[in-house]
Amino acid sequence: MRKLIFLFALALFALNVSAKKVKFSVDLTGFEISPNGVHVTGDFQTIAGFPGGDWSSESTPMAREAETDIFSIIVDIPAFQKYEYRFVNGDQFYETEFVPLESRVGYEFNDNRWIYVDSIANDTTFTGAIVFGENAPQGQFLVRFKVNLENLASISEHGVHVAGSFQGWNTATTRLYSFEENIYEIISFMPEGDYQFKFLNGNTDAGYEIVPAECSDEGNRQIFVYDHVVHNTVCFSSCVDCIPSSISDEMEAASVRIRYDAANTMLIISSAKEGIYQMAVFDMQGKLLSTNQLSLNPEASSDISRLADGIYIIRLSNGPTMFTSKFLKK
Asked: What residue numbers bound the domain in which 263 lies?
């Protein structure tokens, strides 16, 4: 019995050492608030000690903040992990919010919100009171940074970070998470404005990438925030994504696939998300070569016979969402 008690105490100690306070908060201003309360549900509930297990819609109630319609809760959960969650206006799972595309995990059609807890600092991780069913807190916009480290020999044991004018150029506070090999990303919230930033392999100045002159402003990347932005995946220290290892490339998070006809003169583009897409083709220096409109129902073709042999960038946009990849003309 004493041994079991000791092991249990040791486990609790280990959890406390690695635990981090995380504040989940949701803004229901303008919504009819359920008489059954407001809750948060996710894959953190079991490890945080709530009954009912993960994804229980009624076991993690959120408290109203003062006289507002903002509800929040602070939980202790292990750091250096990714967590998925949703807000619930009520206590039944069918009352969970519809999460916008930009905020979703996105991979394998996963439509949950997510957060990466990146430190054990003695503070509380808090992104802000996200509007129910929206991308960001009031007065702010979502920016999803994405970088591909495929061209690096190794990735720092201290993780991949982004630093910029939106967070005081702190090299250690904004750590990215990888859902798939080599691609790292993070969601940040910020007001409208122009920002500069750079990615880091590590968490010190020595890990900064070198941004090429053709896509830099005073040596930094630049982003103009006036709406929610899913940043195009770029290769570390490059203006574009890394060169694909195969001719066919499935665009991440969009279920968009590119293939070629037998003569290699037509791109055949298909998508699980049907609709009208604006298509733009660039060379590897970022020069716009052509634009046209495609109706993917579920596929369409585009003539590339006039292009010289080489690698090109294709960008498809459908409303606020943009997808970028490469193709090889030969």
From this structure: 249-329
